[in-house]
C-alpha cells in the first residue's frame, strides 16, 4: 500500500518509513508538519497517512486536527495517529466517525508485527485503538454495574474488541481458539445488551458507543 | 543668640511695666500735692493698659520667635510711650512749685517726644504681619515715613524752648538753633508724618487686598484701626475749628491709637494663628490658673489643718499631699475650661477625634475612616486624608489605591504628624482648629497608613506568589514536553532501529534474536518509565481537563477511588493547582489513613472551582503534620483559594478546597 508519513523528528520518520518499506509498502511522501502533510495527501491520495500528534508550530494537537481534516477531505485515505502519550481528545470521536482511523502510542511500533497489522487493518477501513485508551474508557471513573458482570477473561476480550481487533486477532493474542473467542464475544454482547454483527468496525463502534454512554 | 534676645525682650517688657507704674505713682503723688496735671490719673491708668497689652503680646511673640520684627516693634513702641508718659508725669511733679528744676527740664524734654505715640503704630501699618513691606513699590512711602519720624524726634530735641506743664521751659541740651530755622523743618516733617499715616493705612489696605483669606483675617483688625486714623485726625481738626480745645479728642484718640494695634495683633495671634503662639498663650493661661488654684488649695488646707491639729509639719505635709493629688484632675479640668472658653471649635473637634480613636481601639471603627472623622471635626465636607506610604513615599487613599500625586484642586494641604499623611482641606479654616485636628488625627492616621501599607504589600506578595506558582506550572509543562518530545522520541527511534536491524538479520545470525528482543524490551521499559515520570511532572491529560487527569490518577491508584468530576473547564493554572492538591491529598490518604475507599469530587460553582477529597480512613490529620498538607495549603493560597481539613479521629478525612477561577 501507499503511505504518507508526517513526523517532525527526522530520524524517527526515517525509521518508520524503513519499517513500512521493509514490509513491502511504498512511502510516497514525508512531511514535517500538518500543512505539508495535507498537501502531500491531496497530491498522492495515499492509502494510509501515519501522523504524529505533536508537530510544529505549537507542538500541541496539530496531528489530530490534521487527521480530522484528512478524514473529512479525503475519505479514501485512512489515518493512523501516533502519540507519545494517551489522550482521548478527539480520538474517540474520530474512531466513532467511521472506519479507516487508528490511534496508537508510538512505542507500539516496537511490536512490529502488531503495528503493521494495525496499519493494514486501518488502511482497509478498519479501526485500531490503543489498549491504554481502551483501558481509560473501560476503567471509567464511575462504577459500572454491567461491566462488573463480565468475567475477567470476558473483559480482556472486550478490550481487544474495542481496540478494533478481529476474532482471529483476539484468539492469537489470548492463545485461544477462534471458536472460544466467538463464544466470549456472544456472551459479552448479550450481557451488555448489544446486537451481534459480523462487521468488525461496526462491532468496535457499538462497544465504544456503549463505553462512552456508561462513562457519561 | 536667641537666648540673649529672649532676655532682652523680657527686660524691655519689664522696663515698660516699671516705667508705666512709675508714671502712675508719680502722677498720683503730684495730684496729692495739688499739682495741675494735663493728663489725669485715670487717663494714665488707661495708658498703662495701652502700653501693657502690646508689650505683653510682643513679649510672647519674642519668646517664641525671637527673630520676629513685629515682636520688637511691639516691645519698643510701648516702652518709648511709657517713658514719654513717665517723663510727662515727672515734669508735672518736679516743676510744681520749682519752675527752675533741672530734673523738671530733662523730664519735659523726654515728654516733648510725644510723637513716638504715632511711630510704632505707623511702623506696624507698613510691615505687619510678616515684618516686610507689602511690596517693593512701598519703599518710597516707607522712606518718607522714616525720614519724617527721625526728623521730628531730632528736631524736638533741638527746640530752644520746651512746652512744659506750666509753661515754657528752656531746653537743658546745649544747642542754640533759632526757631526760624527749626520751625519750617518741623512743619515739613510733621506734614510728612501725617502723610505717612495715610500711606500706612493705604499699605494696610494693599496687604489686605493681596492676601489670602487667612492673611486677610490676620490683617483685618489692624486695618480697621488704620481706617480710624483719618477719622481721628479729621475729627480733631473739625473739633478744634468749631469748639477750640482738642484735648478730649486727643486723649480718647491717643488711648485708642495705643490700645488698638496691641489688641489687633493679639486677636490675629490668638484667633487667627499668627506666629503660632496661641498654644503658648493657652498654656500660660492654663498654668497661671493652675498655679493659683494649687496655691489656694495648699493655703486653705494648711490653714484648716493648722487650726484643727496645730502642728505645722503635719499641716504642710497634708497640704502638699492634697495639692499633689489635685494636680492632675485640676490640670485637665482647667485645660478643658480654657479650651472651651477660648477655643470652642477646636475643643469640640479634638473631642470628636478622641471619641473616634476610642471607637477604633474598641474595634467599632476602621482607622481608615479617619478622613471622614476629620471632615466632620473640621466642618469641611471636602476634607480628605491621604496616607503617606512608609516604603515608597507615595500616597494612598483610604481604599489603598495608590495615588499618582496629590490632587491639585485648590484644596490646601497640611502635613499630619511627621509625614504620616496629608490633609486636603478648604484653605479658609481657622488655623487653631486645623492644628488641633491635625494633632488629634495623628494616631489614627498612623494606624491607618500602616494598615494600608500592609494591605498593599500583602497584595503584592499574593500576586507575586501567584506568578511564581504559575511559572512553576509552566515549567512543569515544559519539562513534560521535553521528556515526551525529546528523550522519549529518541528511545522510540532507537527501538525502531533495533527492530529493523533484527528483521534484516540473515538466517545464520538469527541466534541474536533473543538478545535483540531483550534490548527492545529494555527500550520499551525505559519509554514506559519516562512516561510515568513525565506524568508525575505534569499529566498531559490535564490538557483535556481536570476530569480526565483525575480519572487517570484514580485508575493508577491501588485503593478504589471514585471520581465525580465536572466537565466544566477552569483556567489551566487553577486546574493544575487542583490536580496537584488532589494528588497530595490522595497520597496522604493512602500513606497515613489506610482508607478502603477515596472519593474525589469537583464542581464549578459561581466562578469557584471546588475540590473535595474524602476518605474513610483513620482520620486525625493535621495541617502541620506530614509534608503534604502545608504543601497543599501553599498551592491553594498561591491561587487565592482556601483549604479546609476536617479530620476527626477515626472518622476519615475530608479536604475541601475552593479555588477562584479568575477568568
Detail the topology: elements first, then pairings.
The complex is a heterodimer of chains A (216) and B (663).
Chain A: E1 2-6, H1 10-22, E2 26-31, H2 34-44, E3 48-52, H3 62-73, E4 78-83, H4 91-96, E5 101-105, H5 112-123, E6 127-129, H6 131-138, H7 145-148, H8 152-163, H9 167-174, H10 178-192, H11 200-215
Parallel strand pairs in A: 1-2, 1-3, 3-4, 4-5, 5-6
Helix pairs in contact in A: 2-3, 6-8, 8-10, 8-11, 9-10
Chain B: H1 2-32, H2 41-64, H3 69-94, H4 102-111, H5 116-127, H6 139-158, E1 161-164, E2 167-170, H7 179-210, H8 213-242, H9 247-271, H10 278-308, H11 312-342, H12 344-361, H13 370-378, E3 384-388, E4 395-396, E5 402-403, E6 412-416, E7 421-425, H14 431-503, H15 513-537, H16 546-555, E8 561-564, H17 572-593, E9 598-605, E10 608-615, H18 628-638, E11 642-646, E12 653-660
Label this structure with key terms.
A: 216 residues; alpha/beta; B: 663 residues; alpha+beta; five-stranded antiparallel beta sheet; five-stranded mixed beta sheet; 12 strands; 9% strand
Describe the structure.
The complex is a heterodimer of chains A (216) and B (663). Chain A is built from eleven helices and six strands. Chain A is an alpha/beta fold and 216 residues long. Chain A has two domains: 2-129, 3-Layer(aba) Sandwich (Rossmann fold); 139-215, Arc Repressor Mutant, subunit A (Orthogonal Bundle). Chain A has a six-stranded parallel sheet with strand order 2-1-3-4-5-6, sandwiched between helices. In chain A, helix 6 crosses helix 8 (152-163) and helix 8 (152-163) packs across helix 11. The longest helix of chain A is centred in the last third of the chain and has 16 residues, at 200-215. Chain A starts with a strand and ends with a helix. Chain B has 663 residues and is α+β, with helices and mostly antiparallel strands. In chain B, the strands form three sheets. A five-stranded antiparallel sheet of chain B has the order 5-4-3-7-6, covered by helices on one side. A five-stranded mixed sheet of chain B has the order 8-9-10-12-11, with helices on one face. The longest helix of chain B has 73 residues, at 431-503. The radius of gyration of chain B is 47 Å and the shape is elongated. The mean pLDDT of chain B is 82.
Amino acid at each position: 500500500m501507499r503511505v504518507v508519513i508526517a513526523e517532525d523528528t527526522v530520524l524517527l520518520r526515517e525509521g518508520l518509513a524503513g519499517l513500512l518499506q521493509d514490509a513491502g509498502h511504498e512511502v510516497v511522501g514525508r512531511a514535517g508538519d500538518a500543512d505539508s502533510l495535507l498537501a502531500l495527501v491531496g497530491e498522492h491520495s495515499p492509502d494510509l497517512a501515519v501522523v504524529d500528534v505533536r508537530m510544529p508550530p505549537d507542538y500541541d494537537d496539530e496531528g489530530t486536527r490534521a487527521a480530522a481534516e484528512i478524514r473529512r477531505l479525503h475519505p479514501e485515505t485512512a489515518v493512523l495517529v501516533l502519540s507519545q502519550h494517551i489522550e482521548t481528545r478527539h480520538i474517540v470521536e474520530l474512531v466513532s466517525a467511521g472506519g479507516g482511523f487508528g490511534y496508537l502510542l508510538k512505542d507500539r511500533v516496537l511490536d512490529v508485527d502488531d503495528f503493521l497489522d494495525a496499519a493494514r487493518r486501518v488502511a482497509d477501513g478498519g479501526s485500531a485503538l490503543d489498549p491504554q485508551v481502551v483501558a481509560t474508557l473501560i476503567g471509567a471513573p464511575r462504577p459500572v454495574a454491567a461491566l462488573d458482570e463480565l468475567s475477567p477473561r470476558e473483559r480482556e476480550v472486550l478490550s481487544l474488541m474495542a481496540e478494533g481487533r478481529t476474532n482471529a486477532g483476539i484468539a492469537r493474542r489470548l492463545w485461544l481458539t477462534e471458536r472460544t473467542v466467538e463464544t466470549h464475544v456472544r456472551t459479552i454482547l448479550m450481557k451488555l445488551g448489544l446486537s451481534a454483527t459480523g462487521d468488525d468496525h461496526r462491532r468496535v463502534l457499538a462497544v465504544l458507543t456503549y463505553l462512552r454512554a456508561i462513562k457519561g | 543668640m536667641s537666648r540673649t534676645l529672649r532676655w532682652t525682650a523680657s527686660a524691655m517688657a519689664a522696663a515698660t511695666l516699671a516705667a508705666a507704674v512709675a508714671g502712675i505713682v508719680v502722677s498720683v503723688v503730684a495730684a496729692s500735692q495739688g499739682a495741675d496735671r494735663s493728663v489725669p490719673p485715670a487717663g494714665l491708668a488707661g495708658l498703662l493698659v495701652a502700653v501693657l497689652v502690646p508689650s505683653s503680646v510682643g513679649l510672647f511673640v519674642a519668646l517664641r520667635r525671637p527673630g520676629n520684627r513685629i515682636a520688637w516693634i511691639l516691645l519698643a513702641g510701648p516702652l518709648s510711650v511709657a517713658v514719654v508718659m513717665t517723663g510727662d508725669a515727672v515734669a508735672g511733679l518736679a516743676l510744681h512749685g520749682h519752675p527752675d528744676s533741672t530734673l523738671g527740664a530733662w523730664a519735659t524734654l523726654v515728654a516733648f517726644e510725644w510723637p513716638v505715640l504715632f511711630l510704632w503704630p505707623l511702623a506696624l501699618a507698613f510691615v505687619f504681619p510678616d515684618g516686610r513691606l507689602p511690596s517693593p513699590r512701598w519703599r518710597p512711602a516707607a522712606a518718607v515715613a522714616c525720614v519724617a519720624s527721625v526728623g521730628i524726634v531730632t528736631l524736638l530735641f533741638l527746640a530752644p524752648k520746651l512746652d512744659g506743664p506750666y509753661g515754657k521751659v528752656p531746653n537743658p541740651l546745649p544747642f542754640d538753633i533759632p526757631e526760624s530755622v527749626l520751625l519750617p523743618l518741623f512743619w515739613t516733617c510733621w506734614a510728612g508724618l501725617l502723610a505717612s499715616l495715610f500711606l500706612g493705612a493705604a499699605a494696610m489696605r494693599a496687604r489686605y487686598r493681596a492676601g489670602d483669606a487667612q492673611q486677610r483675617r490676620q490683617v483685618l483688625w489692624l486695618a480697621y484701626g488704620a481706617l480710624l486714623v483719618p477719622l481721628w485726625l479729621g475729627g480733631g481738626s473739625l473739633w478744634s475749628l468749631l469748639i477750640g480745645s482738642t484735648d478730649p479728642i486727643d486723649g480718647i484718640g491717643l488711648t485708642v491709637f495705643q490700645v488698638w494695634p496691641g489688641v489687633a495683633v493679639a486677636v490675629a495671634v490668638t484667633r487667627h494663628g499668627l506666629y503660632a503662639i496661641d498654644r503658648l498663650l493657652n498654656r500660660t493661661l492654663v498654668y497661671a490658673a493652675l498655679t493659683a488654684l494649687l496655691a489656694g488649695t495648699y493655703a486653705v488646707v494648711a490653714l484648716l489643718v493648722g487650726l484643727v491639729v496645730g502642728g505645722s509639719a503635719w499641716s504642710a505635709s497634708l497640704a502638699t499631699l492634697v495639692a499633689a493629688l489635685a494636680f492632675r484632675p485640676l490640670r485637665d479640668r482647667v485645660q478643658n475650661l480654657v479650651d472651651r472658653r477660648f477655643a470652642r471649635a477646636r475643643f469640640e473637634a479634638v473631642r470628636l477625634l478622641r471619641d473616634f480613636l476610642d471607637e477604633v481601639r474598641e474595634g467599632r471603627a476602621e482607622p481608615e475612616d479617619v478622613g471622614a472623622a476629620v471632615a466632620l471635626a473640621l466642618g469641611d465636607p471636602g476634607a480628605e486624608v491621604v496616607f503617606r506610604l512608609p516604603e515608597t513615599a507615595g500616597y494612598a487613599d483610604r481604599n489603598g489605591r495608590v495615588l499618582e500625586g496629590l490632587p491639585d484642586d485648590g484644596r490646601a494641604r497640611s502635613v499630619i504628624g511627621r509625614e504620616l499623611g496629608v490633609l486636603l482641606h478648604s484653605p479658609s479654616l481657622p488655623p487653631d482648629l486645623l492644628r488641633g485636628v491635625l494633632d488629634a488625627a495623628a494616631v489614627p492616621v498612623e494606624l491607618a497608613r500602616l494598615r494600608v501599607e500592609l494591605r498593599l504589600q500583602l497584595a503584592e506578595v499574593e500576586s507575586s506568589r501567584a506568578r511564581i506558582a504559575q511559572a512553576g506550572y509552566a515549567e512543569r509543562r515544559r519539562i513534560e514536553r521535553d521528556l515526551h518530545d525529546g528523550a522519549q522520541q529518541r528511545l522510540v527511534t532507537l527501538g525502531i532501529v533495533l527492530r529493523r536491524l533484527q528483521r534484516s538479520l540473515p538466517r545464520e545470525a538469527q541466534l541474536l534474536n533473543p538478545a535483540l528482543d531483550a534490548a527492545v524490551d529494555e527500550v520499551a521499559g525505559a519509554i514506559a518509565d519516562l512516561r510515568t515520570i513525565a506524568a508525575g511532572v505534569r499529566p498531559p491529560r490535564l490538557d483535556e481537563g481536570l476530569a480526565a487527569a483525575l480519572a487517570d490518577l484514580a485508575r493508577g491508584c491501588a485503593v478504589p477511588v471514585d471520581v465525580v468530576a465536572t466537565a466544566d473547564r477552569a483556567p489551566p493554572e487553577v486546574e493544575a493547582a487542583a490536580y496537584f492538591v488532589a494528588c497530595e491529598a490522595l497520597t496522604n490518604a493512602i500513606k497515613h489513613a489506610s482508607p478502603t475507599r477515596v472519593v474525589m469530587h469537583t464542581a464549578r460553582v459561581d466562578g469557584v472551582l471546588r475540590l473535595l477529597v474524602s476518605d474513610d480512613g483513620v482520620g486525625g490529620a493535621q495541617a502541620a503534620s506530614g509534608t503534604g498538607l502545608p504543601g497543599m495549603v501553599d498551592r491553594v493560597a498561591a491561587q487565592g483559594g482556601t483549604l479546609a481539613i476536617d479530620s476527626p479521629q477515626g472518622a476519615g478525612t475530608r479536604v475541601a478546597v475552593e479555588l477562584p477561577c479568575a477568568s
